[in-house]
Design a protein that fits this description.
With 409 residues, the chain is an alpha/beta fold. It has two domains: 240 residues, UDP-N-acetylmuramoyl-L-alanine:D-glutamate ligase (3-Layer(aba) Sandwich), CATH 3.40.1190; 151 residues, Protein-Tyrosine Phosphatase, Chain A, CATH 3.90.190.20. The protein is 38% helix and 22% strand. It has an eleven-stranded mixed beta sheet, sandwiched between helices. Strand 2 and strand 3 form a beta hairpin.
Length: 409
């Protein structure tokens, strides 16, 4: 029955795609559109490409999780990849605005539900693939095959850029028509990177023979930067200017946002809401954390979403933290305390010694600040750029960065 309902929804969206193309023509044919797909890194990669293009003097558009931008005008976003009518409307407005480039996050839902049907891409970027959305895709194989459909749809004139260090990186390029390129840090890829230094001041990197400096933090951002640098090269951008822009570029909202409090506590807010993204942000912090500093992590798991990842995230978050405060995320229609119980499933008695359970996220953040001392780090993970918390179907204003900054004076 569920498959029948899903197939009907896909057919309806296919019809909507055709209707959108009929109504708007095909605005994508007049734009140079680069799609970014993968579990993590889509927002950072697409946003940085948009910022670089505009800094270089091109008119550009951005479509993604945090915001949609037509030229310089920001628009609200509902889904990472909009439905076909909204997507084609945005693209049509970008054409009218005189945009040349569009950088777009392409979600697995957007691919599977044919939201991008008829869109002509000049390039596609694959960041990585880790467990997420299995409530929808049912298996990692289905999840991967959905992502691969995007690359199979690219024309022979387009480029396909993939992360060689991800286990699916080469596989996703197999049998496609597009020109394909690999980027990574471990082999002799076409676009090869080395990490020369990473600390709280940022990253010193070498891409092929070019030295790159960035204010962005963490190894995972080294991958995002290499993907961006590689894509800029494939787009024919002036790479000397790209290098200068990368030195001053800021991360998107809610992606390793950080500030130092007056009493010497570092506060970090990140959107990490999957096992892999949580692990990466925690490992990135541990790589640059002062020896005597504690890492205090405030995190939860979303309701009405993949329940299989809760026990995994619980274990990762506790193992890689000195203190773990389990709290609510967007519990939606579920009981936050039930979600937290599931997060504790695989925790040992030793693990539980460093765990506090505070379902109220506001109180959980206050507790983290109460514990923190000079040299410690507080990570609020899961909500990132979001300015609300959804509880029992109602959205209430809530912003992790606001909460931290108000209390960490």
């Amino acid at each position: 029955m569920q498959n029948i309902v899903k197939n009907l929804k896909i057919k309806r969206r296919a019809i909507a795609s055709l209707a959108a193309l009929h109504f708007y023509g095909n605005p994508s044919a007049k734009l140079k559109i680069v799609g970014v797909t993968g579990t993590n890194g889509k927002t950072t990669t697409a946003t940085l490409l948009y910022k670089i293009a505009t800094e270089l003097g091109y008119k550009a558009g951005l479509i993604g999780t945090v915001e949609n931008i037509v030229g310089t005008e920001k628009r609200p976003t509902v889904n990472t990849t909009p439905g076909p009518m909204m997507l084609n409307q945005l693209l049509s407005e970008m054409v009218e605005e005189g945009c040349e480039y569009v950088f777009m996050e392409v979600s697995s839902h957007g691919i599977d539900q044919r939201r991008i049907a008829g869109v002509e891409f000049i390039g596609g970027i694959f960041t990585n693939l880790t467990q997420d959305h299995l409530d929808y895709h049912k298996s990692m194989e289905n999840y991967f095959l959905t992502k691969k459909k995007f690359f199979q749809s690219l024309s022979k004139d387009a480029f396909a850029l993939s992360n060689n260090d991800d286990e699916h990186g080469k596989q996703i390029l197999e049998g496609i028509k597009a020109r394909n390129f690999l980027y990574g840090f471990t082999d002799m890829e076409y676009f090869h990177g080395n990490i020369l230094k990473l600390d709280f001041s940022g990253l010193n990197l070498q891409f092929n023979n070019e030295k790159i400096e960035s204010k962005l933090l963490g190894k995972f951002n080294a991958y995002n930067l290499l993907a961006v640098w590689s894509a800029c090269s494939l787009l024919g951008f002036d790479m000397k200017k790209v290098k200068k822009i990368l030195e001053n570029i800021e991360p998107p909202k809610g992606r390793f946002d950080h500030f130092m409090s007056a009493k010497g506590v570092l506060g970090i807010v990140d959107f990490a809401h999957s096992p892999d993204s949580l692990e990466k942000i925690l490992l990135a912090i541990k790589e640059i954390k002062p020896v005597n500093g504690k890492l205090i992590t405030v995190f939860g798991c979303g309701g009405d979403r993949d329940p299989l990842k809760r026990r995994i995230m619980g274990k990762i978050g506790v193992n890689l933290s000195d203190v773990a405060i389990l709290t609510s995320d967007n519990s939606r229609s579920e009981d936050p305390e039930k979600i937290i119980i599931e997060m504790k499933t695989d925790l040992s008695m030793n693990d539980l010694k460093k765990v506090e359970v505070i379902p109220d996220r506001h109180q959980a953040i206050l507790r983290s600040i109460e514990i923190a001392q000079k040299g410690d780090i507080i990570l609020c993970a899961g909500k990132g750029h979001e300015t609300y918390q959804e509880i029992k179907g109602v959205k209430h204003h809530f912003n992790d960065m606001e909460e931290l900054q108000k209390a960490l004076k």
